[in-house]
Amino acid sequence: MDIEELMGLAKRRGLFWPSAEIYGGASGIYDYGDVGALLKRRFESVWLSYFVDTGRDCYLIEGSTVLPEAPLVHSGHASRFNDTIVGCSKCKTFYRADVLLSDAGISISEGAGTAEMDKAIKEHRVKCPNCKSTQFMPAKAFNMMIELQLGPEKGDRGYLRPETAQSAYLNFFREFNVLRKTLPLGLAIIGKAYRNEISPRQGLFRMRELTQAELQLFFDPEHWVSELGDLGKRTVTVHLYGKKEKQRIALDELVEKHKIPAFYAWHMGFIDAFYREVIGVPEEKIMFLEKGGEEKAFYNKIHMDIEIDIDSWGGFREVGGLHYRGDYDLTQHGKGSKQEMAVLVNERKVVPHVLELSFGVDRNLWMLLDVFFKKDSDRSVLGIKPYLAPYHVAVFSLQKEADLDSAVERIYKKLRPGFKVFLDNSGSIGRRYARMDEIGTPFCVTVDYDTVKKGSKDHDTVTVRSRDDKKQTRVKIDDLGSFIAERIAFNPYEYFKFN
Ligand SMILES: [Zn+2]
Description:
- There is one protein chain.
- The protein folds into three domains: 3-78 and 146-373, 2-Layer Sandwich (BirA Bifunctional Protein, domain 2), CATH 3.30.930; 82-143, Herpes Virus-1, CATH 3.30.40; 380-488, Rossmann fold (3-Layer(aba) Sandwich), CATH 3.40.50.
- By secondary structure, it is α+β, with helices and mostly antiparallel strands.
- The protein has a nine-stranded mixed beta sheet with strand order 3-10-11-19-16-15-14-12-13, with helices on both faces.
- The longest helix is centred in the N-terminal third of the chain and has 20 residues, at 34-53.
- It is built from 15 helices and 26 strands.
- The chain binds zinc ion (ZN).
- Zinc ion (ZN) binds at residues 88, 90-91, 93, 128, 130-131, 133.
């Protein structure tokens, strides 16, 4: 699928579209429709079960999306959370400098400075996409946080949080005390973050308001995962910083040959299993890309992007990250708040280190549509795992007729308490199947004449058609609930046995 096709599907099937669409939309902000909102919840709840419920000492918290200025000064965001922008001297349109260059076919490193950007723009005589002028103002840093005024006139300055992570760091001390004062301690947050992106136009891949699912693991660097055990044999694809090519390598080997700490490699395996086994992404479509030098975020000691091969973007794109942030965050907030962040564990005082597992929920949704939407000669199917499906089951009546309708109503009422059920009585059965296939509904239940015909051997049974193999099974109405429940259940322990 290309981008237009995917956006078309998203709009047609109730997934997502630009916010304020009736006013022409706004760039970088999106609304989710009924199907999209459900799909997002499913992804989030599977993520939560897998990363938090199976994790030892991991807890979900929720931080405010509005933060006062002080923590963001000390986290470094107020001074360093910048993009380099460049404005056209003639028409005054501003661009992200790296995007302006890459759109002109010039590659530049992600962390290039303003001088380097200016030089490249001049050298290649880059034209303003808007007015074709080649005269640009000097490139400059632009802070990407969205500023707020809290309270009336000249109130306090605040910001919409640029990442959910800060909420975890700000609450570490409180939670550490609440939770029996032991390390490791994981604090997870699923929530909104905000970035004032310059002219975003990459669908759910560059948004001004986005949802992150993040797990911050606080640990004592001298007492954490030191052995990989059986997990060490698992192979992952990784492109290490400074290497020409990506490689397929066992986690054990990453630790031994490439000096990746065991705790880090362990979590690479944990994440790889999430994408391959839980989500079902083919092995060759997942890789870790290590960032180094200027490309690495300033707070990270080890920084790997989690990338998935996404056809609509023409290759591998970042959907998450695994970041070893050291003690940067707690040390900074300790200084800024004058609160002691060192804690007493293992008979030592230690400022906990942080390993961050970070996922862009919106990007992952786009990925699900891109990777799992398949078109063949006779139909289009969103072949996601049944537990990720927005609607679990659809209920149809073969014909519009009073007897059948009342059976449909009975089934609908019966299934609704445990499942997300979609009723559809418009169009042919074929059209109704097609609509459900496109949004990944794993089961369609059809009520026919035999269902309501007393004395028929199929009385009180329905046809259940399964999405993937189109197989039709006759199931007793009384057994429908357990038939579906068994097939949509998600048990994270089946997928990861190393905790
Ligand atoms: Zn211009």
